[in-house]
């Protein structure tokens, strides 16, 4: 905890957690920015809707109700929920590795989820259920491979990150090989899906992923106190009664579940899980990576990137993954230089 004003207690049923006042203020600010961007997203389309038209549509009235509720709202909701899920996944793995580079898209979990989904597309029929199952299994197998290759250091440290980068490179090469060997129509579909896009998402595709992300978020809330104790050091965590092995296993399952759920619907979307936790931590001036600012920063980043993707070459909407990849490359270079200088 940081100095200054005493923390406040947030209660939900029998669960309670201490939160720094600055974290609460930052979270409310990020929530306000997210809602403002969501309103802009609901207003944008082939023609811009006025604020009264958007408010009327949200209550089911007006000529624009069908367009805004059925076409624009699913996209905006997906950006908010999936951005939050990626922010949470990044916070989990950056806490586990205690390294700002330890995010799912850097250490190979996104690539593993994509491998599983690619196999579902190329070998099976590529239904939504097969994509979801393939993504989760691919992400879990990638996590297991990284853990086994990093046994000497467990789930900690720079070695795990470096191992994850190596696994990411291998899986990326494997994914390219699968696409090259696939039938032309399958390869085109897989390559387009690999860009990461929210174009064309509708409610039918989102009900189950939203439910899964909601369950995983609730599980993470239940594990948050133990996770923050573990972030202070293994010895202190064990002394306070935290079962590290069980905790790490559960956190990995939640983190992979969040990443794989997003990948199954929208394809791999990089940068959000890498940057959102660090942006949230710096804004909150917290000692470790905090969950709520990370989730809200992820929602703001993905929604903002999706708006840029729609406006940059309008009326053509770019895949949001193109925008996040371009920004993420610059951010990753800056982060690597900063890490090297610090060591």
TrEMBL record:
Recorded GO MF terms: transmembrane transporter activity
Keyword hit for Transport: yes
Domain of life: Bacteria
Compartments where located: Cell membrane
Membrane topology: Multi-pass membrane protein
PANTHER family: FERRIC ENTEROBACTIN TRANSPORT SYSTEM PERMEASE PROTEIN, FERRIC ENTEROBACTIN TRANSPORT SYSTEM PERMEASE PROTEIN FEPG
Gene Ontology CC annotations of this record: plasma membrane
CDD domains: TM_ABC_iron-siderophores_like
Transmembrane regions listed in the UniProt entry: 24-42, 76-94, 106-124, 131-151, 157-180, 206-227, 247-274, 286-310, 316-337
Keyword hit for Transport: yes
Family: Belongs to the binding-protein-dependent transport system permease family. FecCD subfamily.
Keywords: Cell membrane, Membrane, Transmembrane, Transmembrane helix, Transport
One GO term of the biological process aspect: siderophore-iron import into cell
Protein name: Iron-enterobactin transporter permease
Principal localisation: membrane
Gene of this entry: fepG_1
């Amino acid at each position: 905890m940081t100095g200054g004003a005493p923390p406040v207690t947030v209660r939900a049923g029998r669960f309670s957690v201490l939160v720094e006042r600055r974290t609460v203020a930052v979270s409310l600010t990020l929530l306000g920015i997210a809602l403002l961007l969501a309103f802009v997203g609901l207003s944008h389309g082939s023609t811009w809707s006025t604020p009264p038209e958007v408010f009327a549509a949200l209550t089911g009235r007006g000529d624009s109700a069908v367009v805004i509720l059925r076409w624009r709202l699913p996209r905006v909701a997906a950006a908010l929920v999936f951005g939050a899920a990626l922010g949470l996944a990044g916070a989990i793995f950056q806490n586990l590795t205690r390294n700002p580079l330890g995010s799912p898209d850097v250490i190979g979990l996104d690539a593993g989820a994509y491998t599983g989904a690619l196999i579902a597309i190329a070998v099976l029929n590529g239904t939504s259920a097969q994509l979801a199952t393939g993504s989760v299994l691919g992400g879990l197998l990638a996590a297991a491979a990284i853990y086994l290759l990093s046994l000497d250091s467990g789930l900690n440290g720079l070695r795990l990150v470096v191992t994850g980068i190596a696994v990411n490179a291998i899986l990326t090469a494997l994914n390219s090989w699968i696409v090259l060997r696939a039938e032309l129509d399958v390869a085109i579909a897989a390559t387009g899906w690999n860009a990461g896009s929210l174009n064309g998402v509708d409610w039918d595709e989102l009900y189950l992923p939203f439910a899964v992300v909601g369950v995983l978020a609730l599980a993470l809330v239940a594990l948050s106190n133990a996770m923050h104790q573990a972030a202070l050091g293994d010895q202190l965590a064990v002394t306070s009664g935290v079962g590290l092995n069980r905790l790490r296993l559960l956190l990995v399952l939640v983190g992979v579940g969040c990443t794989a759920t997003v990948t199954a619907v929208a394809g791999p979307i990089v940068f959000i899980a890498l940057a959102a936790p660090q942006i949230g931590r710096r804004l909150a001036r917290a000692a470790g990576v905090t969950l709520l600012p990370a989730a809200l920063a992820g929602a703001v980043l993905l929604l903002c990137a999706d708006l840029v993707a729609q406006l940059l070459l309008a009326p053509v909407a770019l895949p949001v993954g193109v925008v996040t990849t371009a920004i993420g490359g610059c951010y990753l270079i800056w982060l690597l230089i900063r890490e090297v200088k610090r060591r």
